[in-house]
Amino acid sequence: MLTGEHERVVSKTGLDAAALKPMECDVRRALDLPFDTVAIDYEGREQLPDADLLRELAAEKRVLLTTPVRADGFDPLGDDSLYETLPDAVDPVFVAGHPAYLTDAEQSRAIAPRLGAAREIDPEAWVGTEGVERVALAAGGPQYELLSRTTERDFRALRAAGFEETIALYAPTVLSDEEDDVLDAVGGYVSRRGPVRRALPEDAATDASATGRAREILLKASRDFALVGSPEEVGERVRTLKSAGADVVVGYPARGVDEFTD
């Protein structure tokens, strides 16, 4: 939901929440955002907001915190000491964890039993599906999906099969239709998606300097894997995703937090 003086602007997007990355901004900026809910991504233990800051945010917002079940401190089958430091008002989001933020030992840990054990800790917590879609679905609970080319089809199939839990969707968001703005914001991100990586020419630039076929591929992929365009265009895409089955759409401001506050 949206609140505050920016409601008329941001409401055009239809977004329900914002995602913040601690390595990119002071997560206290969440207090400036016109959303009731903010999701904080995990980018390594050293970047984890401290309990006092989380408590401050949770006094004003619903706070979701990504907790990789393979990471030391968040491992429900091992060292789970960090759960004890989280304020009660902060809701964990159980995920497998991005390899960039896990040690070799952490990456080697089995995901499925840890997601299952984490769900016993908090049955209402969202479960991140990236890279572990079947395991996440088997674990049950609200599913936290990453926007892809097949999202609408996948959501319709889940609902048709009788899935009644919450479906939340994470999507990098660029409130611009200027090609250079889009590529500078999400070109690198979409280039790492499997189908895009395979289609791109070797050593192709992925930002605004991309040209030719690489530029065409990246611009098309940006529309598939991110929410891109004017606030009205993004709003239309969000409505389509919700009609397919999404309950909550979380936008990550790929050009910086200010884009969601202007």
Account of the protein in words:
GO terms for molecular function: oxidoreductase activity, acting on paired donors, with incorporation or reduction of molecular oxygen. It comes from Halogranum gelatinilyticum. InterPro entries: DUF7388 (IPR055812), Luciferase-like_sf (IPR036661). The protein is α/β, with parallel strands linked by helices and 262 residues long. It folds into 2 domains: 7-175 and 229-260, Aldolase class I (TIM Barrel, Alpha-Beta Barrel); 177-225, no CATH class. 34% of the residues lie in helices and 17% in strands. It is built from 10 helices and 9 strands. It has helices spanning 7-10, 51-58, 104-107, 112-121, 133-139, 151-160, 179-191, 194-199, 212-225, 231-244, and strands at residues 17-20, 37-40, 62-68, 90-95, 126-128, 143-146, 167-174, 227-228, 248-253. Strands 1-2-3-4-5-6-7-9 form an 8-stranded parallel barrel, surrounded by 5 helices. The longest helix is centred in the last third of the chain and has 14 residues, at 212-225. The two termini are 17 Å apart. The mean pLDDT is 95.
